[in-house]
Each structure stands twice: as structure tokens, then as C-alpha cells.
Please model this.
Amino acid sequence: MFQRMIDDFKEGTGTVVRLTSLATAVALSLFITTSFLCAAAFVFVLRRYGLIEACLTGAAVFFVVTLIAAGCYMMGKKKVEARATETTRSAAQTALGDPMLVATGIQVIRAIGVKRLIPILALGGLALGLLASRNNAADQAPAE
Model:
């Protein structure tokens, strides 16, 4: 059994190494292809319009590519934040729906007493509010 686990690990590692080297070769080939296409476009614009126009054309193309990449990054970041928020909400709902947690809460209330528990809950709510406002202010701060 242990030998089979080792063999599976070796096989999986070998597959990962092969796929990684293949992905590296593809990325390198794509980079070289893009470089030659950029050089060809530069030479074409250089011969037809001149040096300054060729440089400005190259800069404009790379600026557009940068804007597209930044847009994709922002969309991906929003999706990740939405998933994290959804996961947090579902975890809180699951915790509040757990009968063991509810039973424990009832036992705590019985042990401490309602009159003593109200000031403790008020302080906890105040601390939670301060923590939430501090995290909200940190999220809205401009990135440096």
C-alpha cells in the first residue's frame, strides 16, 4: 500500500514536470513570436511613415494591451472578492444553523445570566463595530 502511494506520487510528479516544461516552451515560443511580430510592425510603419510615428504606434499598441490586461485583472479581483464574501456569509449562516452551537449559546446564557450578559454583548458589539469601521477604512485607502 505504501509502495503504491510512492509510485502514484512519482508518476504525478513526473507528469507535472513534463507539463511545466511544455508550458515553459509554449510561453517562450509565444514571446519570441510576439517579438518578431512587433519588430515587423515597427519596420513597416518606419518605412511608410517615419521613426517617430513607428515609435508612437508601438507605444500605443502596448498601451492598449496594458489596458486590456488591467481590465482583466480588475474583473478577476472582483470575482475573487465576491466569492470570498459569499463563502463568509455561508459560513456564518452554517454556524448559526448548527444545533450544537445554539445549544452551547443557551448553556452560556443560563450559566452567566441575562443581566450580566447584556453589558458583555454591548461591549462586544462596540468592539465589532470599531473593527469593521477600521477594516472598511483600510480597504478604501488608495494603493501605493
